[in-house]
Amino acid sequence: MHEELEIEFKNMLTKKEYDSLMDAFQLDEQMAVKQVNHYFETDGFQLKDQGAALRIREKKQKCVFTLKEPHEDGLLETHATVSKAVLQNCQNGHIHLPEAIKQKLLNLHIPIEQLKYRGELVTFRLEMEWYNCLLVLDHSLYGQTEDFELELEAPEHVHGKKVFHQLLTNYNISKRPTKNKIQRFFEEI
After folding, report:
1. Which residues form the CYTH domain (predicted)?
2. Is residue 24's pLDDT more than 90?
3. Residue 145: inside a domain, yes or no?
4. I want to staple 114 with a disulfide (CB 3.0 to 4.6 A). Which of 42, 60, 105, 136 is the partner?
5. What domain range is 31 assigned to?
């Protein structure tokens, strides 16, 4: 189990903007890493009401359970690696939480016995280092939706904000309000 503070800036992209950034940074979708986010929530959306999210991400034959919680500088993420069998059990309604995540959910007063598997969002992700940040281009599929997103993960807020706004300006991309993937997923389903 480990924790990290995620400071990121996001912007939805049109397909044209996505393709333009792919060209500008000499990226090829053949290089993209496939990741599948499996989401969990209660019927009453208690995680959402706390500003939290719970998922298992499958990526490169590895499964990681993650709880995201609000933090003054971004999101506090608690991660625990789990087996493919744990993922399959969770999908089948037998949710077994890593102890650290279980304790954090209890502290948030989330009724863990009410958690249910809600579905998956598939993302093809391209990443590269850029101005001491991680530049991410995501092409996501969920339900009947396909979308494109720019993310910039930064070591600290002020630097990240400056780099992100410069990126949007340099590539003539309109700033758009952008919901996170789990919000978009739940709105779709």
Report:
1. 4-189
2. yes
3. yes
4. 42
5. 2-176
